[in-house]
Write a structure and sequence with these properties.
mainly alpha, single chain, two-stranded antiparallel sheet
């Protein structure tokens, strides 16, 4: 199994196209991916060409950055995680319930946005994906909400009640994901500070640390929005659209998108 894992890693790290039917380029192994990018690889007429972004002297280090790869992918393909400037993501899905009365209505609204009924979104620390908030608003919309969907098409809240459920879903999802990790942030810090920590373990912990940061950032944003929604809660005994009522909840998610 170890031999297979090694062979697979060798292949994918040298196969620029990530396609078993394409050739591999062992020369790319000598490039460095850490640091400030000074070259880029361009495909021209079936060839890979290395182009410099700045003037380089003999002996200068060639640094290539594949911006399309996340830290999880660089760890899988190349065996390392970028400590600075890497792209750490967490995949989150929103799946509709086929047995729900509004299933077809919701599926159509998602498809209008180019989303499927079980679409996977990439969470990042910088912001919550706009399409994820859109999908969650559709997911939590009830019969009253579907009477007027103009707001959701404009990326605006449908109702305070719906927005509350969206925030709670973000919070619960992130908290559940964080609970799956077997180490605390303090334990991760101790492992990284230990000079005797194995290289592979260090990279795994760096990835884990970045993923936790993404989840915490999203969880905190969800809590902020929930706090704003509850401040505007009118305690109605029935669920009616309230998006047009004044209050901070109307734009609560805007600053996080």
């Amino acid at each position: 199994m170890q031999d297979y894992t090694w062979a697979h890693a060798v292949f994918v790290s040298r196969n620029w196209y990530k396609d078993i039917n394409k050739p591999i380029f062992p020369v790319t192994e000598i490039f460095n991916y850490r640091g400030e990018q000074n070259t880029k690889i361009v495909e021209e007429d079936g060839r890979l060409t290395l182009k410099t972004l700045i003037d380089l002297k003999a002996g200068d280090e060639i640094i290539v950055r594949e911006d399309k790869l996340t830290n999880r992918q660089t760890l899988e393909f190349f065996g390392f995680v970028l400590e600075k400037g890497g792209d750490t993501t967490i995949e989150v899905g929103v799946a509709l319930d086929p047995s729900e009365k509004l299933f077809n209505n919701k599926r159509i609204k998602l498809e209008e946005k180019g989303l499927s009924e079980d679409y996977q979104f990439q969470l990042r620390a910088a912001a919550i994906p706009t399409d994820l908030i859109y999908a969650l608003r559709i997911y939590h919309a009830n019969t009253y909400d579907f009477d007027d969907m103009n707001n959701v098409d404009k990326n605006k809240p449908i109702s305070l009640q719906c927005e509350k459920r969206v925030a709670e879903t973000l919070i619960d999802t992130c908290q559940s994901a964080l609970n799956e990790y077997t180490t605390t942030a303090r334990e991760d810090k101790t492992i990284l500070a230990n000079k005797e920590t194995a290289y592979r373990l260090k990279n795994a912990v760096l990835l884990r640390k970045g993923e936790k940061r993404v989840l915490w950032k999203t969880l905190e944003r969800g809590r902020d929005v929930l706090k704003q929604v509850l401040a505007q809660w009118d305690m109605r005994s029935y669920d009616l659209p309230t998006a047009n009522e004044p209050g901070a909840a109307r734009e609560a998610f805007d600053e996080y998108l």
